């Protein structure tokens, strides 16, 4: 039984190193957005290259995160966490010295592999290490401190971009990792899952990642309209179909398809796809809009976006408590509608926009919508399946959220009619940004309709999330990704 007390020196070190490790991966999924214009200018990169700079990381992270949790269960959570931290640091170093866009994209993909190893392990270590009486508080502190990191990340990222340069957004991870890894080795007890099997569903992980990669490539390169793009799209869909067939037939798959027999679970994941696709597209394009069109510096753009994260940090726990009392249907309906209204208000953010009159009101409405829906969404996912499968359900939902953001970053510029050089032209980008925000708002409305039509109150004895404070706006926090994760 875990017996580390939170007040002990060891407990404080465990909390520190897990927060530091998970914050590295979280920050790199957010702060890079504010660096994109400078990266594009310095590396002479077109819009497709900027899309890949974001998506290469999200692709390997989303495709391998369930497998990363399984590796921790099987070989030891501390060991895999430390490997993930060091891997992430090495990939960050490669990002920081990238001589061209192609090198940077490849290094970002390697970063995502490191993120997939360390992200599920950070929370699993806390759950496996602390005494039962301290576990909820430890998880709350982990989530809260991680949220603070998410809040200051774009600010720090903007400061680095405007100061020493965008490369330091990545290079900063190296000393952080060199601090984190030794502390983990010295103070974190090793833990694993004695019920883990000996073989992993590597085929499922490869097929899932391959399907995402092929579809993403087809969407980003679709402007060319070549036969290669068409064939890639067809192969991507085929890989997705084969992935589902393989998962259905394996005895112990990475993603057992029978979990979708729960109508509530399926419905909530559809809502997740809608809202996190809109979020992913928004935060990718909003950072560009504020710099390219409005004329903000990287620091100004990062600071401008802080209200959404601050609202989530301050009020997400209360939103979750309210949803516990009134049920999730209303929050999951009203939340996406508020987010849609916030994105429509972003249509006022143009060349002469005032922060107080135009930008801030849109972000406040968007933030209130996020506060309303994110915590109830996580809780409803956990409540829609048997308690024994709650960790698996949360892991699948987290992967779905990341995949939705990945597809949105790939597809939204295409749908909005952005050309390869659009981010170099304020007028062209502004026009396309307006169309993109309208599309995002429409997707959110679809999510609200799905929630209203399908979501019901989970049973009273269902599992409740230990993470009550949400600070990440790009994906929900992992909730015990220690599912028997899918070894085959």
Mean pLDDT over all positions: 86
Largest β-sheet summary? none
CATH class of the largest domain: Mainly Alpha
Number of domains: 2
Count of DSSP-assigned helices: 17
Specify the structural class.
mainly alpha
> At the third CATH level, what is the topology name of the largest domain?
Growth Hormone, Chain: A
What Rg do the Cα atoms give? Answer: 21 Å
- The total of beta strands comes to 0
Question: β content, as a range?
Answer: under 5%
The helix content, as a percent range, equals: over 70%
Transmembrane segments: 12-36, 48-68, 80-99, 105-126, 138-160, 166-188, 200-220, 226-246, 267-288, 294-317, 329-347, 359-383, 395-416, 436-455
Organism: Streptomyces plumbiresistens
Membrane topology: Multi-pass membrane protein
Subcellular location: Cell membrane
Describe the structure.
By secondary structure, the chain is mainly α. The protein has 2 domains: 9-201 and 250-454, Growth Hormone, Chain: A (Up-down Bundle); 202-249. Helices cover 74% and strands 0% of the residues. The protein is built from 17 helices and no strands. Helix 2 packs parallel to helix 6 (132-162). The longest helix is centred in the N-terminal third of the chain and has 31 residues, at 132-162. The chain is globular. The two termini are 27 Å apart. The relative contact order is 0.15. The model is unreliable at 480-488 (pLDDT under 50). This is MFS transporter. Its main location: membrane. It is a multi-pass membrane protein. It is found in: Cell membrane. Residues 14-459 form the Major facilitator superfamily (MFS) profile domain.
């Amino acid at each position: 039984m875990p017996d580390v007390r939170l007040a002990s020196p060891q407990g404080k070190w465990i909390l520190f190193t897990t927060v530091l490790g998970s914050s590295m991966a979280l920050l790199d999924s957010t702060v890079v957005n504010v660096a994109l214009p400078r990266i594009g200018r310095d590396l002479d990169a077109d819009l497709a290259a900027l899309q890949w700079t974001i998506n290469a990381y999200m692709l390997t992270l989303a495709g391998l995160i369930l497998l990363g949790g399984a590796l921790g269960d099987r070989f030891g959570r501390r060991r895999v966490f430390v490997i993930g931290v060091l891997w992430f640091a090495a990939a960050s170093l490669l990002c920081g010295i990238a001589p061209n866009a192609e090198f940077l994209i490849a290094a970002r993909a390697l970063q995502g592999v490191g993120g997939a190893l360390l992200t599920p392990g950070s929370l699993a270590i806390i759950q496996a290490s602390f005494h039962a009486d301290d576990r909820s508080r430890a998880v709350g502190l982990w989530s809260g401190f991680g949220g603070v990191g998410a809040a200051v990340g774009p600010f720090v990222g903007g400061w680095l971009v405007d100061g020493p340069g965008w490369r330091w957004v990545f290079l900063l991870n190296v000393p952080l990792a060199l601090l984190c890894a030794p502390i983990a080795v010295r103070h974190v007890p090793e833990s694993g899952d004695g019920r883990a099997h000996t073989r992993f569903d590597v085929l499922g992980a490869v097929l899932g990642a391959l399907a995402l990669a092929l579809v993403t490539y087809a969407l980003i390169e679709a402007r060319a309209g070549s036969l290669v793009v068409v064939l890639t799209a067809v192969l991507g869909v085929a890989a997705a179909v084969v992935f589902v067939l393989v998962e259905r037939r394996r005895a112990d798959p990475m993603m057992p398809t029978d979990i979708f027999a729960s109508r509530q679970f399926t419905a909530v994941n559809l809502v997740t796809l809608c809202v996190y696709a809109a979020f992913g597209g928004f935060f990718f394009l909003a950072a560009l809009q504020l710099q390219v069109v409005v004329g903000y510096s990287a620091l100004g753009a990062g600071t401008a976006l802080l209200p959404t994260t601050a609202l989530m940090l301050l009020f997400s726990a209360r939103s979750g408590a309210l949803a516990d009392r009134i049920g999730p249907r209303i929050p999951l309906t009203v939340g996406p509608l508020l987010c849609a209204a916030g994105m429509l208000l972003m249509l006022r953010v143009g060349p002469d926009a005032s922060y107080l009159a135009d930008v801030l009101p849109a972000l406040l409405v968007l933030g209130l919508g996020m506060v309303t829906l994110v915590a109830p969404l996580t809780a409803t996912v956990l409540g829609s399946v048997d308690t024994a499968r709650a960790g698996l359900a949360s892991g699948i939902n987290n992967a779905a959220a990341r995949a939705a953001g990945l597809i949105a970053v790939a597809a939204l510029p295409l749908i909005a009619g952005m050309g390869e050089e659009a981010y170099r032209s304020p007028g062209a980008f502004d026009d396309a940004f307006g169309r993109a925000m309208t599309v995002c708002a429409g997707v959110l409305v679809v999510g609200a309709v799905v929630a209203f039509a399908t979501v019901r109150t989970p049973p009273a004895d269902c599992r409740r999330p230990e993470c009550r404070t949400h600070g990440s706006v790009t994906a929900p926090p992992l909730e015990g990704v220690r599912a028997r994760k899918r070894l085959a």
